[in-house]
Design a protein that fits this description.
Strand content: under 5%
Radius of gyration: 16 Å
Number of strands: 0
Shape: elongated
Distance between the termini: 22 Å
Largest sheet: none
Number of helices: 6
Structural class: mainly alpha
Helix content: over 70%
Length: 135
């Protein structure tokens, strides 16, 4: 049950809802739970939450264009820039406040999903691994 709660907390914290999973991970470590399962649960949940953001952005782009909230010309310009430098920004998806919108923007700009997923997993895993190693 502990791993499921951590998974859900990490998942929600990776969406656009303000919630943090780090404190729960640290607490679970101090309670003696399996570090590898905790690391997997947190990384998997957080990465899956970022995938939800990506698909919200992907599907939301059409809505935003139809409502004239976004100009397609600017999206194409931003897409070429993001294709060039987006990988570096996705590696910062672990950061509080700015990380979640980065994953949303990647979806809006239709960044290559395979690259996105690999980079998000690396970023999320690295954050949690750092916490595990520090504790």
């Amino acid at each position: 049950m502990t791993y499921l709660i951590l998974f859900i907390t990490a998942f929600i914290s990776a969406t656009l809802f303000p919630l943090g999973s780090e404190a729960l991970l640290i607490y679970d470590i101090t309670q003696g739970y399996n570090i590898y399962l905790l690391l997997f649960s947190a990384t998997f949940g957080n990465s899956l939450g970022s995938v939800v953001n990506y698909f919200l952005g992907l599907k939301g782009e059409e809505y935003l264009i139809n409502k004239k909230l976004l100009n397609e010309k600017y999206i194409l310009k931003a897409k070429s820039y993001f294709d060039k430098y987006g990988a570096w920004s996705i590696l910062f998806s672990w950061l509080p406040i700015i990380g979640d919108p980065i994953t949303f923007v990647a979806g809006v700009l239709k960044y290559d999903f395979k690259k996105f997923l690999i980079l998000v997993i690396i970023a999320k895993f690295s954050r949690y691994l750092f916490l595990v190693l520090v504790i």
